[in-house]
UniProtKB/TrEMBL annotation:
It is found in: Cell membrane. Residues 17-463 form the Major facilitator superfamily (MFS) profile domain. The lineage of its organism: Bacteria, Bacillati, Bacillota, Bacilli, Bacillales. InterPro entries: EmrB-like (IPR004638), MFS (IPR011701), MFS_dom (IPR020846), MFS_trans_sf (IPR036259). The gene is emrB_1. This is Multidrug resistance protein B. It is a multi-pass membrane protein.
Length: 478
């Protein structure tokens, strides 16, 4: 029965399904950083501090991090078609609320609803791709996913940087809205049911614990910039988050049908590649959040300048992701990831030398090399880890990698912004304010070095060999 299902899935017309999935995921992930460049404009329009305004980006990633663990359960409960359409319609509703939001509170409500739909998209797309493509072609397929996962966030500031120069920032959502509606309409006709339903039992306690765990951490880290690390609310939020997350993890091991299967971390390579993906995403999203603030508030550049600075790197990312996928299919992930993390480390260090007079050319070239490196890390590392898992664990593996990446980006960005503001203190001059940005990139450099060291422990196996490893491990897991 199982072989027949896999054979039928292999025979389906992949092109329309892939196109609809990529379109929906592209719009969903685009919204992670769509507002990054316009944060200074939102601060001015709604009278907000930096730490408050960055929540328009952070809350999106946080809710993604809360929703994604539940996605493995949703994939095993609902049909592929129904789940995708529900996720996209939810995203459309959130986008509409953001577009008509009169104040910060309504904007946040819209971002939360947007993220609830978007959080389902990436693990669902990755799971479907891993099921409809044979293992020897997964690298190329996931290279396309890599284009979405990295090119879309990079493109967000470019689009918003240009639009905010000519239109109010709410116009961004009016552009996304019709595109999302079109994707829903096309999906209604072309989406097929791919995933297998096992109807697991929902565990409400796990959902509550994961929400408190991830939410507590982020609130604590984000609020530290405004209230200080010794503030009772900051400490309480972090402690509650730590206790809830620990309880959540322990509970998953006791459940017959866990919401999120943490046993995937029993594979060392999966664990290493997941951590590397987390660090790479911190480097990607953190830079795209901090650099526009530095350029517009400290170096005198316009929003369009900060958006255009990202464009060459975004183009390189888009070109290289599919190419790196094909390289992965032939040679595996190890050397791609090592080279990519080397570039990420070097470019992070180069950004520790910023001044109010740093040229746009310097910032742009360094960022282009940075994105070239990130394109070698994201999907090769993720695919290498997921190839280690049997098909029954792929929904949990893809949900886990996306969860860890999104939460790492949320907490990492919050920490970097906190480091930046805390290092600046009561500085009044531009040069003193830039010192905080440089300090944030010192932190990024250190964690990039840690990831680079870990990359040497990725085994140099090809995807075909990884399949044999999985087969050998399956009897032990049974």
């Amino acid at each position: 029965m199982r072989n027949e299902e896999i054979k039928d899935v292999q025979k389906i017309n992949k092109l329309p399904i892939v196109a609809v999935l990529i379109g929906g995921a592209f719009l969903a992930i685009l919204n992670q950083t769509l507002l990054a460049t316009v944060i200074p404009h939102i601060m001015e329009d709604l009278n907000l501090t930096e730490n408050t305004a960055q929540w328009v980006t952070t809350i999106f990633m946080l809710v993604n991090g809360i929703m994604i663990p539940i996605t493995a359960f949703l994939i095993e409960t609902f049909t592929t078609r129904k789940l995708f359409l529900t996720a996209m319609i939810t995203f459309v509703v959130g986008t509409l609320i953001c577009a008509i939001s009169p104040n910060f509170a309504i904007l946040m409500v819209g971002r939360v609803i947007q993220a609830a739909g978007a959080g389902i998209m990436m693990p669902l797309m990755m799971t479907i791709f891993l099921l409809i493509f044979p293992i020897e072609k997964r690298g190329s397929a996931m290279g396309t996913v890599g284009l979405v996962i990295a090119f879309a966030p990079a493109l967000g500031p470019v689009i918003s940087g240009w639009l905010v120069e000519h239109y109010p920032w709410r116009a961004l959502f009016y552009i996304i809205l019709p595109l999302a509606i079109i994707d829903v309409i096309i999906a209604y006709f072309v989406m097929r049911n791919i995933t297998k339903r096992t109807y697991p039992k929902v565990d409400i306690s796990s959902i509550i614990l994961s929400t408190l765990g991830f939410g507590g951490f982020l609130y604590g880290f984000s609020s530290a910039g405004d209230y200080g690390w010794s503030n009772v609310f900051v400490i309480s939020a972090i402690v509650i988050g730590a206790i809830s997350l620990t309880t959540f993890i322990l509970r998953q091991f006791k459940l017959a049908q866990p919401i999120l299967e943490f046993r995937v971390f029993q594979d060392k390579i999966f664990t290493i590649t997941t951590v590397i993906g987390m660090i790479a995403f911190i480097g990607l999203i953190g830079a795209e959040t901090i650099l526009p603030i530095y350029m517009q508030n400290m170096a005198g550049f316009s929003a369009l300048d900060s958006g255009m600075m990202i464009l060459p790197g975004a183009v390189i990312m888009g070109i290289m992701s599919p190419i790196n996928g094909r390289i992965f299919d032939k040679f595996g992930a190890r050397y791609l990831v090592i080279i990519g993390l080397t570039l990420l480390t070097v470019t992070s260090f180069l950004y520790t030398r910023l001044t109010p007079d740093t040229t746009l050319t310097y910032i742009t070239i360094v960022f282009a090399f940075r994105m070239f490196g990130v394109s070698m890390i994201m999907m090769p590392a993720t695919t290498a880890g997921l190839n280690r898992l049997p098909n029954r664990l792929i929904p949990h593996g893809s949900a886990m990698t996306n969860t860890m990446r999104q939460v790492a980006a949320s907490i990492g960005t919050a920490i970097l912004v906190t480091v930046m503001t805390a290092s600046t203190g009561d500085a009044s001059s531009a040069s003193e304010m830039v010192d905080g940005v440089n300090t944030a990139f010192y932190v990024t450099t250190v964690i990039s070095i840690i990831a680079l060291i870990m990359a040497f422990f990725i085994k140099g196996t090809t995807p075909t060999e990884d399949r044999e490893i999985v087969k050998q491990q399956q009897p032990n897991k049974a």
